[in-house]
Amino acid sequence: MNIIVPIKQVPDLVEELEIDSSGKDLDREWLKFKVNEYDDHALEEALLLKEEFGGTVTAIALDGNDIDKALYAAAAKGADKVVKVTGLDAHVSNHQAARALANVIQGMGADLVFTGVQSVEDRDGQLGVLLAHYLNMPHISVVTGVTVAGSNVVVKKEYSGGIYAEFEAATPIVLGIQAARETPRYVPVAKVRRAMSSTEMEEVSAGDVSVSAGSSVSRMFKPVSGGKAEMLSGSAEDVAGKLVEIIKSKS
Amino acid sequence: MANNIFVIAEHLNGKVEDITYEMLGKAKELAASAGGEAVAVLLGSGAKGLAGDFAAGKVLYVDSPQLAEFNPEAYCKTIASLVNSHAPKAVLVGNTSQGMDIAAGLSIDCGLPLIAYASDLSAGNVTSQLYGGKMNVESAVEGDRFIASVLAGAFPTDAGKGSGAAVEDVPAPDLSGLKIKFKQLHEPEGGDVDITASDVLVSVGRGIQNEENLEIVQEFADKLGAALSCSRPIVDNKWLPKTRQVGKSGLKVKPKVYIAIGISGAPEHIEGMKDAECIIAINTDANAPIFDFAHYGTTEDLFDVVPAMTGKL
Ligand SMILES: Cc1cc2nc3c(=O)[nH]c(=O)nc-3n(C[C@H](O)[C@H](O)[C@H](O)COP(=O)(O)OP(=O)(O)OC[C@H]3O[C@@H](n4cnc5c(N)ncnc54)[C@H](O)[C@@H]3O)c2cc1C
Question: What is the pTM (predicted TM-score) of this model?
Answer without folding.
Answer: 0.94
